Amino acid sequence: MSETIVAITGLRKVYGGKNPVTAVDGIDLRVPAGTIYGLLGPNGAGKTTTISIATTRAIPTAGSVRIAGVDVVAQPALARQSIGVVPQYNTLDRSCTVAENIYFHCRYFGMNKGEAEGRTARLLEQFRLSDRAKAYPQALSGGLAQRLQIARAIAHKPKVLFLDEPSAGLDPQSRIAMWDAVQALRGEGITVVLTTHYMEEADELCDRLAIIDHGKILIEDTPAALKASVGGDKIYDLRMRDADAREKLEERLRAVEGVTGVEAIPGGIRVLARAQDGLLARVVMTANECGLQDVTTTEPSLETVFIRMTGRELRE
User: Fold this and answer.
1) Which tens digit of pLDDT belongs to each residue from 222-242?
2) Domain ranges within the chain, ordered by starting residue
3) 231-299: what fold?
4) Fewer CB within 10 Å of terminal CB in the chain, N or C?
5) What is the reported pTM?
6) First CA to last CA across the chain, in angstroms?
7) How far is CA 108 from each of CA 16, 78, 165, 191, 316, rounded to the nearest angstrom?
8) 192: which strand partners?
């Protein structure tokens, strides 16, 4: 098993005042080195607060965060040497060119002039920004600006890169380009920790992820294992005309070979099933006898996992 590069233990953050708000409520987390790890949850779940503490921008109420063995509260300056950060908002220096944004970051972290120039040139090429080297950030599209922020954040060769909602505000094409850039960081040995409320992003990018809500981790595993935990390969949502017939239909559906679970949903019944030839036809035939009105077919997703654990949709 890979060594733990980010260790979060008993993390809590309570914002004070007359009406205290608990943003993070007892998070324990271990991020293996060399992985892309995601925190998936709705806005306000506590993802950004967790990242803020891990990157020394906020002080926890209780608990600890260690980056590569360094306590971020006790030794923040030392911890920052191992950390790269891309926050939700654009922090590029608008008075510096694209190249200068990277170059001065390198110099800030102790590189000499020659090292900084070489590192800048390599990153401009790696992130396909060489032709915009002399442009200013305000002339960049959202996707290019995000790639520049990532390039700058890894300029000092950190061990861990934190990305807070990295695709927020990006168009689909820019989002895919950003995903490619993040996945390529594995080759440099950089561990990536990202927050997102986009299930597609978490599924596409992450080796492991934790679903978080109300400051707590609800479940943690690989995306494939989380989807498998739903208990079926297919999901059939049956919309029924007669609400009184649902209980009887639930019993009959449970007896259908290949059905792994049956549960009530607003307006009908959800059937979890294994991928099996002819199963949908058997489910529909059974439901038709009890007033089937409509049927939709989907596959388990991370959103399905979140709904099963919280009773609400991820983006609510």
Assistant:
1) 999 998 888 778 899 999 887
2) 4-227, 231-299
3) Alpha-Beta Plaits (3.30.70)
4) N
5) 0.86
6) 36
7) 35, 14, 26, 22, 41
8) 36, 161
